[in-house]
Amino acid sequence: MSAYSVESKFDVFESPMPLRQQEVNTMPQLTGHLQYLIRALGSISGAYFTPENSFAKEVKGLSRAEPFRSLSPTEEDRLRLVQDLERGWDGDAADPVGEESIDAARELLLTLKSDHAAAQDARMLPIADGRIQLEWHDADRSLEFEFTRPGWVIMGLDRSNPTEGTKYYTVEINQLEASKISAAYDWFVRRDPKIAPWPSR
Amino acid sequence: MAFPVEVIPGDDRLFRNVPNRPKDFWVAEQNRPSSAAFKGKKDESDGRFRASVDWEKYKTAEECRRANSMAIVAVTPVQCRSVGKDVEHTPICSESINRAHSDICDPLGNAMTKGQDARASSSLAEAAIVVWPADGKPLIGS
Questions:
Q1: Residues of chain A with C-beta less than 8 angstroms from the C-beta of B17
Q2: Are A191 and A149 in contact (CB under 8 A)?
């Protein structure tokens, strides 16, 4: 367990796997995508599987159930791409993305998926100094998590009112705070200012 | 050879490379680059974060493109200062000579917090205009 991940939630990760996941792991012939789907379905036990997006006013199936142990295949691919970037990936003098950033991104996403099993796949961007940024976007709203060693800056952009211009909201966290990560994602998908991790304005 | 450091007029364009990997450097839904494209590195000599750009006085957008470019975007010093950043002409006279080289950086003696920097980078990403390719369409997936 890394220094920036001391949430008790992660203690659960160390406990024996639930039977459902053991069964999944005994089927090596399944592709990564299918295994991930089964885990996702198992994780939201008894609830509706509703893909989350910005158009879902009532997002169901978000019970605080089993923690996730793995990212989606798409997220794994994106993380690997960022991890494999070499020095100078920006055509200039950018540093490669450090292991600390990769591990932090993975832990943040697993934390998010423990509350939002059907969360949209995150986009993963390298930063020139070797850090990482996670993003979600739709036409008029964005959510970004910038790793700041050891914490994160969470930023929301709201462009839904053209006459007011873009509104920016930020909050800085010093370690993985599941409630704020979850609230930020809720703000992005549900468009409810009352559940945002930053004060409503 | 040493180039003089000049003052960049407020409305001159500063060109920034947007890499093509990962392709998510372009936010297609909002037709702009990711804010990550405007986040630079810390200069250990003065503690300020700097993002390299090229001043249009000495380089064209076409000359700024690199093998990995998805797009070259432009912002102005006025736009940078409006979000709390500063602009400095920092010509390079050593190995790779570049008289156009400049930095978008934190104000001298007033390093920005991470939250302020995140907002500033996002604002610049929103303000940025694609100047290469000429048709304004980034080469996504190239």
A1: 90-92
A2: no
Q: Tell me the residue length of chain B.
A: 142
CA distance A135 to A155: 10
How many Å apart are CA A198 and CA A170, to the nearest integer? 7
Among A125, A172, A180, the residue to mutate for chain B (most B Cβ within 10 A): A125
Give CA–CA dist A90/B92, Å, rounded.
Answer: 18
Extract the tokens encoding B67. 């093998």
CA distance readout (Å), A192 to A19, A31, A118, B71 = 37, 37, 19, 35
Q: Taking Cα atoms as reference points, which of A63, A69, A58 lies closest to residue A12?
A: A69
Contact assignment for B118 to A125 by CB distance below 8 Å: no
Q: What is the value of pTM for the model shown?
A: 0.81
Tens digits of residue pLDDT in A63-105? 455 667 799 999 999 999 999 999 999 999 999 999 999 999 9
- Give the mutation candidate from B15, B16, B21, B94 for the A interface (greatest A CB count, under 10 A): B21
